[in-house]
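Appendix B: complex inputs.
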Amino acid sequence: MANPTFVLRPIWGTGHLMPMLQACRRLLCQSSSNLSLTVLIMRPPTSEAEAEVADLVHREKEADIHGMIHFHNLPTIEYPSNLLEMDDYISELVQLYVPHVRAAIATLAAPVAGVVIDFFCTAVLDICHDLAIPSYVYFAANASTFALLLHLESDKEMEGMVDVPGLPPVPRSSLPLPLQDKTSMSYKWFVYHSRRYMEANGIIINTAAELEPAVLAAIADHAPTIYPIGPVLSLKPPAEEPHECVRWLDSQPPASVVLLCFGSMGSFSAPQVSEMARGLERSGQRFLWVLRGPPAAGEVHPTEANLEELLPEGFLERTKRKGLVWPRMAPQKEILAHPAVGGFVTHCGWNSVLESLWFGVPMAPWPLYAEQHFNAFTLVSDLGVAVAMKMDRERDNWVDSRELERAVNCLMGSSDVGMKVRKKAIAMKDACRKALEKGGSSYSAVQSLYARAAGHQIETQVIVEEAGQI
Ligand SMILES: COc1cc(-c2[o+]c3cc(O)cc([O-])c3cc2O[C@@H]2O[C@H](CO)[C@H](O)[C@H](O)[C@H]2O)cc(OC)c1O
Ligand SMILES: O=c1ccn([C@@H]2O[C@H](COP(=O)(O)OP(=O)(O)O)[C@@H](O)[C@H]2O)c(=O)[nH]1
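Resulting structure:
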């Protein structure tokens, strides 16, 4: 009999495919048998996402010297053109792919130990039920977001505050936009997905037990078994030739630089860029600012910024001794790992948050889309690793220069709040690292997941063998 395989059903996207693969690779590393992974790849809807996935698959194939990871391209289908919101679009697309996923799983030569699905891919659960294969949801966001989704229809809202188990009362204004409008398609999709999570055999969450203990305890009896196996980070060995940003950091004093970086999709209007420049300049802090230009028509990812055009006149010249503005994607993890970085103004994508905590860097949240406003709330009010920054969500997440100046100074200076969040970030760094060590909470969660999958495998093998004897 061929070695068992875990089937992965990710969606495209920086924060989805790679973290899921990385998480499941942990299963391979910690397993005592020859497990493999079979990744079902769908064609992403934009050419830039397509290039990103192709690049990732290529790199993974090159690195997989033992041939333990197999990539299977799902057939191309016609994509709907009438959907506006990205999260509706993803859910709709996943439904259309179900027959192809079923065919791909049914024709695999290897026995399937389990199917791991992205949190937008619950339609695949039908296949798992029909084929009696254990299913696991890989939740790329945090446990607090999972708790929020589980309680979507409970309607416990009082005076604009929402009750999420294990968290202080959450202002309604901090909820993800799709969850604020109960009549929207996105809301309906999230209700659908969150109900279906209950049908899975387990929920793998990219968090550590020590990061969100109260939330994890509060939802433990209301969900399938939760496996907090994080932080899942795709860390690479340092490049032989250090990146220009890293070389610039080499010449800065320890913990003196604030990093500003806004994920794979973050960019700002020209007036907001000017406002940011004024705030940063006035703060007098050293900064590394990843500033990308608005996306091209029909695309979602930012373009390379034209700094001379975008920034106020003379800004680059005046700040050249204190700051570096980088107009493209930057190596965020390498930057956060650098001892010169002392704070991070972040859009609060969960991967960026975990990276910041892994390196013990405190944050100031500037959330933009998806569940980031909710993450910002938990970072300030629950984890205590970020200083609050006021923004106008109604005005495209506008932040005044004075407010940016204040928040950056609070984060980098010696105020009580600054010291407190810095101390907490260091404590979280230690907790994250311990969680991944042998015997740590996340290590043990992977072990239990593996034990469960191995148990299923033995059961299946016995049934097959018994059937053969009849
Ligand atoms: C994949 O492309 C998109 C994803 C999102 C999106 O929306 C979203 C909405 C919610 O109500 C709750 C969520 O948790 C959520 C998450 C989400 O995206 C992912 O969040 C991850 C954790 O932070 C991680 O950052 C991933 O990279 C995100 O993709 C929204 C969206 O457009 C608005 C997308 O295009
Ligand atoms: O200039 C950039 C912007 C982003 N990232 C990486 O892209 C990922 C972004 O994921 P996250 O969940 O934070 O946000 P998203 O882009 O999904 O909104 C993280 O690993 C970042 O380190 C990066 O390396 N350089």
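DSSP finds 18 helices and 15 strands in the chain.
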